[in-house]
Amino acid sequence: MYPDVVGLRSFYAQPIGVVTRRLVGRAIRARAGNMRGLSVLGMGYATPYLGMFREECERALAFMPGAQGVTRWPSAAPTLAALVDETELPLRAGMIDRVIAVHLLEMTPDAGEVLREVWRVLAPGGRLICVVPSRRGVWARTENNPFGHGRPFSRTQITDLLRGALFTPVGWDEALYMPPVPRNWFLRSAVAWERVGATLALPFAGVHVVEATKQVYKPVPTKRRARLTVFEPVMAPQPMGG
Description:
This protein is 29% helix and 22% strand. It has 7 helices and 7 strands; from the N terminus they run H-H-E-H-E-E-E-H-E-H-E-H-H-E. A 7-stranded mixed beta sheet has the order 3-2-1-4-5-7-6, with helices on both faces. Helix 4 links the parallel strand 4 and strand 5 (122-133). Helix 1 packs across helix 2 (15-32). Keywords: Methyltransferase, Transferase.
């Protein structure tokens, strides 16, 4: 079940949400690369992370699921956010270059169907960057943050989910190594937690940040058929008439 958009907005307005945005945003930025001239779609509640691309990309949109609710984005410009059914996006096939999905796959009742719809709207060569809670992380076990709701994933589970929707994972990052303790004195150590966790490749990061490419062709297994020998009738030679 999706968390309410009011609760999501409130979380990101708090000090712990500000730190979360900075750390997760850094991992998304590293995976995204150059966005200049691209069409970017944020799905779920991705607006805290879309702002860094808005001046760079050609077009940025934010689609929020109906069960979650929608909030105005950006706040000081014509709105680019819309309330949608995440399994039936109001876009033509192949018109989006990058999709950034945050607070989406762990919340939706059918993540596979959502990913198939994302596949449809992505252009050939398009990429998906998704942020999902890690099954091993402390954040998925604590309800004081949005990543503590819904279904967490292991690496194997999110890989299988992506491949089932014709995506190929091509890059991984982790973020939020620090526990979700909303104390200002503790939050000041967040960068140190992140450096130590990334350097030692510790297994208890709060989220996976996965980059995946759209497969254009689906491999179809073929069955070998037994070859049948077919004998065609042959006319018997006839004597020539005089």
